[in-house]
Task: structure prediction
Amino acid sequence: ELPNVRFFGHQPYEALPAWLERFHACIIPFKINVVTQATDPVKFYEYLAQAKPVVATRLPELEIYREILYLADGPDEFLRLLDAAVSERDPQLRDRRLAVAGENTWTARYERMDSAIQRTLPAGPPDGRAMADSILFVCPVLILGGVEVILKNRATELLRRGCRVRLIAMEEAGGQVLFENSGVDSRVCSS
Result:
């Protein structure tokens, strides 16, 4: 019904970068609720990978990026900021967005997690016990697909190295399905 709105239907994931390239600005118009208050939207990083201006509802997880995106507190401000984003022509903002995107690839996130895990593992058991006696407790929030893959790959590697791995997911049934039949002791706790 709107002359400037067209629906193209479902598009394959591989085609999305070509579609995104045509955008002048990107939006994340989330309704604020308990779920979105804890959401770090993956699409934000996808938008940054093409240095696009982003207008988003003010989400706590996006606050740290307030200098490279537009955060709106209501519908009127969202529209005003969208106009500003569409007219933006700042090459420094573009470069900063690309830098942030580079710091937040799945590989970069994996490397940070892997480094933290490596720092917590002992170089060797001080009492001569075998590595099989070591237990790694991981408390992830299993919301983002890439994080699930990273954790599963890391847990599989630790199992291969002889560690006993216990994954404790801090949500309802979050980690159990992911690690079903993997050899990982997967538990769910409520807090």
